[in-house]
Every structure is written in C-alpha cells, then in structure tokens.
Request: fold
Amino acid sequence: MAVNDILDVGQRGLQAQRQALTTTSSNIANANTPGYSRQKTQLVNQPPHLVHGLPIGSGVEVKKVVRVHDEFVQKQLIDEKQSLGSLQVKAEMLSRFEALTTQEGSNLGDSINRFFNDFRDLATNVENPSLKNVVRGSAESLARSFHKMNQSLEMGRRELDLRVEDVVKHINTEGREIADLNNTIVQAESRGEVPNELMDRRDLLIRDLAEKIDLQVTEDQRGQKTLVAGNAVIVQGGDHFEMSVRRSAAEGEKAAGSMSVFIHSSGTPREITRSVKDGELAGLMQARDRVINPAMKHLDQIAFQVTQKVNELHAEGIGLDGIDNRKFFKDLGDDVEHASFHFDLDPDIKENHEKIATGFSSSTGDNRLAQAIADIQNEKMLPAGQLGGEVNLSVNESLNNLVSQVGINTQQETQMFDHQKAIVDQLENYRQSYAGVNLEEEAVDMIKYQTVFNASAKAMKVGEDLLDTILSLKD
Amino acid sequence: MTTRVSTAQIFTNAQNHISKAREKESISAAKAATQKEITRPSQNPAEWTVAANLKDDLNIREGIAKNAKFATSFLTATENTLAQLQELVGRTHELAVEASGSGTVSPEQFYHILPEVEGLFQNVIQAVNTEFAHRPVFGGYQSHQKPFDTEGGFSGDNGKIEVEIDRNLKIPVNLSASQIIFGEGLQRGVNVIDTYRGLLTGLKEGNIQGVRDSLEGLLGAIDQFSLGRTQVAGSMTEIQRALDSYEVNQEQSQKVISELEEADPVKVFSDLVRDQTVLRAAIETNRKVINESPIDTLLK
Reply:
C-alpha cells in the first residue's frame, strides 16, 4: 500500500464528513422552514482493494443525501386538509356572519316591536294626531332595519364571492408552480441530481392546495404529479390548466349573480362549481349558498309577509280624507325575492302621515284597523323552516328562527372544524415528529462529523509525516 | 420505542398550548365582564331562541300594559262622569219630588225650581260630553265633535273602542251612549235626555203631573248610571287582572331569561381564576421547555 493511499483515504474522509456537515447545517438552517423534510447523508465505505492478497480499505464516500419523507402521511394530510380547509373557512366566515346577523337581527327585532307597539298606541289613542307621525317614523325605521340587514347579508355574499375569486387565483398560482416543479424535478433527476428541496416544495404546495380544493393526486412513472380538482385535471406533468370565476344565473342553492367556477382545459371553459365538494373553495360557496342565501330568502319572506298583511288590512281601511284602498307599504306585487331590499312605505303615507287609516270607517275615533294591524304581530304567518314547511311562526319568532339557524350552522361548523383540526394537527405532529429537524440530533451529528473530519485530517497529517519521513531518507 | 420530537414541534406545541389556554381564559374573562353565559346564538341556539322569544313577548306585553293603563285612565274618567251624572240626576230627582208635592208648591216656587233644573240639565249635557285625551267618553267612534248639543241632540255613534289589555285579549273601554244615556236595549231602560225634557216642560207649564211622570224616569236614570258604573268596574277589574298577570309574567320571563343568559358569578370567577392559572402555567412550562434546550450546551 502506498503512503498516498493514506492521503487519499483521509481526503475522502474529509470530503464525506464535510458533505455530511453541510447536510447537517442545511437541516439546522431549515429547522423552521415550513414543509422542509430533514435530510440524511448516507455514507458507505468504499470497496477495499487487495494488496498482496489482503483487503485494504479505501475510505468512505457519500452514497446519497435522502430526505426523510412518509408518502402515506402526505396522502393522509392531503385528504384531511381538504375537509379542514372547507370547515375552517365556514367556521370563520359563519362566526363573523353570526355576530353581524345577531346584531342586525336584534335591531330589526326592535324595529318590528316598535312598529307594532306604535300601532297599538295609535289604536288606543287614535285621536292623537302625533301618534300617526310616530307610526310613520317607526315604519321608516323598520324599512331601514330591513335594508340594513339585507345589506349585511348581501355584503356577506359579496365578500364570500371575492374570497372565491381570491382562492381560485391562489389555486392557479400554486397549480402553475407545481407544474413547473414537475418539469424541473424530472430535468434534475435526468441529470442525476436528487432534488430533495424541490420535492419538499412540491409536497408543501400540494398540501396547501388540498386545503383550497378537493384534490386527487397521482404520480406517473417519471415521478410527475397529476392533480385532479373538482373533477377536472388542473395539473398534468408540466401542463397547468387555469381555473376562472364568473357570475352566472341562479341554479339550485346558488343565487343569481353569484360566482361560479370554470376550468379552461380545452376549448370553451367548462363549469365545475357543482363538482367542487371540499376545500376552502367549496366551504366558501357552501357558506354562501347554504347559509347566507337561505337567510336572505328568509328575510325576504318576513319583509314580504309584513308588507302583504299590513297592506291587505290598510287597504280595507278608510282614511280621514274618506279615501280607501290605500296601501301602507310600497306594493311588492308577488315578488318575494329582494323584498327586504325593496321594503318601503307607500309614497302617499311617506309624504303625509295623516293618510294613515286607523279604522274601517272615516270616523275619527274608529280604532279597529289600527288594532287589527297591531294584531298582525301575533299572527302565525311564516313557515318554521327556512325552506318552507308548516306556517306556525309569528314575525318575531321567524326572525329569531333566522338568527338562531345561523347560530346552529355556526355551532355545527365550529365543532366539526375543531374536530378536523385535531385530526390534522395530529397528522402534522406526526409528520413533524418524523420529518422535522431536531436541533439536538443535528448538534450531535455535527459533533460526530466534526470529530471524524478532524480525525481524517489527522490521518492525512500522519500520511504527510510518513511521506516526509520517507523523503528525508533520501537525504 | 421513543417518540422523536422535532424542534419545530416543540415550538408549535408550545404555541398551541398557550393559544388554547389563552382562548379559554379569554372566554372566561368575557363571561366575567358581561356576566352573560350566552352572548351569541351559536353558544346555545335552543336557549338563545327561547330567550329571544321571551324578550319579544316581554316587549309586546310592555306595550300592551301601557295601553291597558291608558284604558284604566279612560275608564276612570268614565266612572267619574257616571258618578257625577248620578249626583246631578239625584239632585234633579230631589227637586222634582219637591215640585211634585201636591198643593204644597206654588207657581212661584215652580219658577224658582226651573232655573236650577235647567242648570242641572246643562251640567248633565256637559258631563255626557266629557272627554278624555280628546275622546268623548260617550261619543263612540265620533270623536271629532261633542256628541251632545245643548238641547241634548246626539251626533255620536255606538262604536265600540276596543283596547288590547293582554295578549290576544281586547275589551271595549267605552260605554254605549244609546244604552247608558238613552236606555236602549235595557229592560225598563230610560231615555235620560227625554226625561229631563219632560221635567222641564212640566216645570215650565206648571204641570204637576208632567213633573210627577219624570220621577220614575229620574230614578231609572240613576239605576242606569249605576249599571254603567258596574260595567266600568268590571272592565277595570279585568284590566287589573291583566296587569297583575303581566307583572307575574314579566317577573317569570325575566327570571327565565336570566337563568338562560346570565352567568353564575361564582362559577364565572372561579373559572376565570382557573383559566388564568392554567395560562400562566402553560406560559411558564413552555418557557422552560424552550429555554432548557441542550443545544447550547452541546455546541459550546
């Protein structure tokens, strides 16, 4: 064995330990990097060579740097995060929406009570001219409360649509990056490189994307990921198919003018709204279509019934000017939709409160009509459920039902979110436990590699000394 | 097998523990600050709905009770009017008895009694035109004018003014002039105005028989007003019962609302202390876990 071999072995030792130390310091540097999987340097001893029939070791080499990754956990996380994304956004949006509905509902409830109580006051004292003015004032306040609640619901709907638009943009950005990564990874692998960081990044993006839309992930032979979202391929190899949103007509639970989702895979965009079943995108659309839309319909129903009932009675009354068949509220015809938006006083009444009729005759003391209108508050005229059913609720009960229904939805979604979050946290915890960086471990590794690095340097020094000794023999 | 714990996990867990403890402490603090168990429907939708419906019911009842009190005032005014009418007719009856005393009253005395009876009649007209809050008590729906003219001509009607005194319970608060003043629909009903007219004619003409004929009518009028007062008393009793029931209902409803919505102060504050302790413990423990990492020692 030549002395040079000692130097070669030492050099390989130095190189291998240096590479291992690089991996360790990279692990340390990425300890807080989201989605990073720790890497391990696989060291193997070089095959020995025979010298005079004896096997002489030829040192160490780095076989590869592997990332610690559990594909099964990744798949589970993708599955569970879809539900988490949907539930999280629903819980978050409904919680905010609930606070708003409770406040606006309370204001509207107060306005309803004030309106009917003022009619009661008027019925008790029809001769007092100022009470008609009070009734007009409370009717205007009732109209404002209906409008305000309608606006709150409409704003909630618009906000959800804006979020739908944002999420689709986000899905496009991430989908594009995943498609690019698919290409880059294949190219790197074809060059014999091990693109661990790129794969980590791709896995992280896929997990993130899974929170946004229900995702099915498959891998082809070359290791490229194909992503199917909402029944449509959005990434295939290096190709990415854009998604878009646009307002469309009413369909099922969806109200007219709400955002629908389209995929541009070939030719004309294809609508995939109904195929999006999970993830943040589905959560947003479900909150919009299954909570806000029914609440809006419910509110419209209340506004419509109040208008119809009060108008029917008021038209039977005779004003002090002897005119009958006068509406109290603006006529809505048969259009229940947007009734809470259009709810308003009849222009005649708005202009002159003296035109409010209080009796079924033109006598100044006839209070029967005013009392009959006040009685509407007790009338069971609205269905118990948001989607209809038996008519057995008064106007106040129906409004309370609307608000409590939002509360029930919020409670359910929040409970389900808490449950789902616990599952995902557990999986994340497991992934972290398995693939995350442990600084103590890395510190020990660092000491370990440093020790061997130092020893290898020492071995080289010995080799050098030996060489020097041999060279000095010639002198 | 030992469980591997990554460094990020230590921080994530610390964050989760502190965040959960903070959330609980914040909920308890909110309850302590508001003294409310339920601040939003999702905390308990069923109980929230019951409380909301009860609050609406209380609000409606409050409006009804206010009107019931107004009705009481109206009825009191009617009752005072009837009492006054009884007095006036009673005095008229005394004078009529005096005037009808056979042979004891001279034509001069007739002329002396006449002005007082005329005055009493005008007082009766004034009384039957009594208004409460711009509404004549005997005018029916015709409240824009006095129901009786100075001659006793009636321009009111029999409109029944009903007022809601309890939920879904309405009672008429005015008495019908045709019944109380004109005796219509009553057994042995008396037309008070005609009785006065007959008496006045008798006195003016010195017709003792005419005066005597009015005596029975005057007594009947007093009975008729008594009947009116009985009706008023009946209505007032009914209103009082409704108001009593309102007070009981109000007390019970508020108790139920309070039970549903309000937090038990002892429990709230003990929960708050517990949650604050847990939060402090979570912060302290996690501070130690984070600080006592052997990394520094290893890399020294």
